[in-house]
Amino acid sequence: MSPAAPPAAEDRPRVPAVPASSLVLVRPGAGGETSVFTVRRAGTMAFSAHATAFPGGRVDPADDLPDRLWEGTDLADWGRRLGLPHEPADAHGTLAELDPADGAGRVLAAAVRETFEETGVLLARDADTGTPVDPARVAAFPDELRDAVERHEVDFGELLDREGLRPDAGALVPWSRWITPHGGPRRYDTFFFAVHLPQGQSPERMSSEAASHGWASPAELLRRFRAGEVNLMAPTWWQLRTMVDAGEDIYAGRSRFEPLEGVMLVAGQGPVFRHADEYLRDLTAFRAAAQVEESKDNIL
Predict the structure, then answer these.
(1) Residue 285, burial from CB neighbour count under 10 angstroms (0-12, 13-18, 19+)
(2) Phi, psi at 125, each rounded to 5°
(3) Distance between CA 271 and CA 283 in Å, rounded?
(4) CA 42/CA 292 separation, integer angstroms
(5) What is the pLDDT of residues 27-73, one digit of tens each?
(6) Is Phosphoprotein one of the keywords UniProt gives this record (predicted)?
């Protein structure tokens, strides 16, 4: 007897889209050209294995920070800038259930926490002076601290409070919002932010999620994608492509995409996003020359 065919995407259970944050660390490169920091995700990862991407991850309970940590930050305005609570039709995201200010706080906290866990870079300011955290303080943190935060043995909000720090939300530039389509076992509602690498800090030991990491210009990563050397899923490609347009100063275009509008691609249908035709041409070139495995989660 033949095995039953798997259910069509439209017949599979509608899995909620879990909120997530991803951060594009930016620094001046050789000759003044902007470089971005990326990681190649390990082949063992359950989602987007083998993909070259930016640090980030899902929002978790630790990202519901106490109100005192947000003093001086207008979370209601951040909710507007992030386009909350709006989402594409039938997105089935969990952020729509939250007050926009609460949702914004969790998304911002996740961006700061995940970046610290994965790279050791801490986007924070002194609670009393408002100045960026001393990079020597961050460098003095033991490696085990990052691991303990990731394992939820140390509460991230309590860590910031104990150190007299606050999340540096003002450094973040909202860039885009992408929502995983229906049909798979995992869905994410991911907010992408850009930020200049804090002076004196640098990405250190990567988490186990990364097989490799490094700096390159957006244009170089796009060239390497077409040459089959790196695997870029559509959201990552889009961040890089729009940063090529933005030029050297990401802050000059701070409001270019605000409020963010969610993009939810649908398998089997043409993608609807800026430069979509260009991405499909690049994807075709990648598949013809692929030297690395393509993520099975890329639906295009």
Answers:
(1) middle
(2) -130, 155
(3) 13
(4) 12
(5) 987 777 899 999 987 666 656 678 999 999 999 999 999 999 999 99
(6) no
The DSSP letter of residue 205 is S
Can you tell me which residue has the tokens 């509460």? Answer: 155
Quote the CA–CA distance of 238 and 186 in Å, as a whole number. 21
Residues 107 and 81 sit within 8 Å (Cβ to Cβ): no
CB atoms near residue 213 (< 10 Å): 16
Contacts (Cβ under 8 Å, ≥6 apart) of 284: none
pLDDT on residue 29: 73
Domain range 18-290, its CATH number among 3.10.20.810, 3.30.70.260, 3.90.79.10, 3.30.300.30: 3.90.79.10
Q: Judging by beta carbons within 10 Å of its beta carbon (0-12, 13-18, 19+), is residue 46 exposed, middle or buried?
A: exposed
Do 12 and 20 touch, CB atoms closer than 8 A?
A: no
Q: How far is CA 294 from CA 55, 185, 189, 267, 299, in A?
A: 19, 18, 21, 16, 11
Residue 111's beta-bridge partner residues? none
**Best CA proximity match to 262, nearest among 97, 92, 38:** 92
* C-alpha–C-alpha distance, residues 233 and 230, integer Å: 10
- Determine the 3-state secondary structure of 19 from DSSP: strand
Query: pTM (2 decimals)?
Result: 0.92
Dist. CA 146–CA 152, nearest whole Å: 10
User: Strands 18-28 and 188-196: what pairing?
Assistant: parallel
Angstrom distance (rounded) from CA 241 to CA 120: 26
How far, in Å, CA of 163 to CA of 286, rounded? 46
Greatest C-alpha distance within the chain = 72
Q: Each residue of 225-278: pLDDT tens digit?
A: 999 999 999 999 999 999 998 877 787 767 788 999 999 988 777 788 989 999
